[in-house]
Amino acid sequence: MRRPYEDPVSFFEDDDEPRRVRSQPRGAAASGATTTPDARTLRTRRAIVGVGALLLLILLALVVRGCLDSRADNAIKDYNREIAAIVRESDTQVGAPFFQLLSEGGSESPQDLATGISSFRVAAQRQLEQARALEVPDELTEAHRSALMAFELRRDGLDAIAQKVRPALGDEGDAADEAISGIASQMAAFLASDVLWQTRATPLIRATFDEREIGGQDVAATRNFLQGTDWLQEQTVAERLGQSLAGGGGGGEGDDEPAPGLHGTGIESVRAGDLTLEPGAANRIPIGTEALVVSFTNQGESDELDVEVVVEIQPETGDPIRVRRTVDTVAQGQTAEVSIPLEEKPEAGQAVTITAAVRPVPGEEKTDNNELEYQAAFVAE
């Protein structure tokens, strides 16, 4: 018998439904929140990342510093190599040939000698400009300043000597002495340039190499521009130019008093090979003549020392050719002969005036027989 009413699906009532229990992950909070690493784990991870970043920065800094140091070392080595080449050229291509030319000055005309020295001055200026154009590392600023000063001293010294060599060879007496003194004083500029290299430029470059521990380098240095300190003496300059100081006279030492008694010389003759020149005549000298021979006699009462003989050939046009030679000793009453080389001659066929003179010796009062003059022409044989 059916009951009055009975819900056929009552067994599906909520209270009677089976409950599904959702499992939670291990370690999850009882409240059901999303899981996260604990604070200690976070700190550890952050520390590892921070240390790694720091190590990377240190490594990058070391790499950058190493590159900068290498670049700086290379710049120092490049500068040393370049300045060494310039000073080496200054020593060997300017200094050495300049002093060789000056030593042969007695056989050159004043014009040719001045022109030759001027060419060395131009080379010295070019070397100074090359040095100024170099890229100079900060560590070598002082060394470079000293090197530039040395190059300037060399250029200025050559310029001054080129201007003084003409009066030194072409003038006589006090004017020539003053020019010779000026040349000797410029030798001190060359010495100063060497000292600047030896005491400043080279030591400063070497100290920079040592400080940065750069090895295997030949430090830039001069081989000396000045070819001997004897060039600082006026007497040396005069001798190398084939001159005698008027103040020094023929007695060797300018401050010495001449010996008591008469002093003097007299010129006897001038020969060109087998031809004895005649005053007042038109002398025809073979163009191949290599030297003129001047004869003179010591007419005084004492031996004479360092007697200077000068021959000048004055063409109709152009500069005179002047050659000097010194006779070390002429005994009392002796006749001496001195050969005057003719390394330079006027053009063939050109009329010239030849003057041969013996410079007065100390104590000489009568000088009207110390000079002879000839009219001549050098002719083809």
From TrEMBL:
Residue intervals passing through the bilayer: 47-64
Keywords (A to Z) from UniProt: Membrane, Transmembrane, Transmembrane helix
Region annotation (Disordered) ranges: 1-38, 243-267
Superkingdom of source: Bacteria
Protein name as annotated: CARDB domain-containing protein
Organism: uncultured Solirubrobacteraceae bacterium
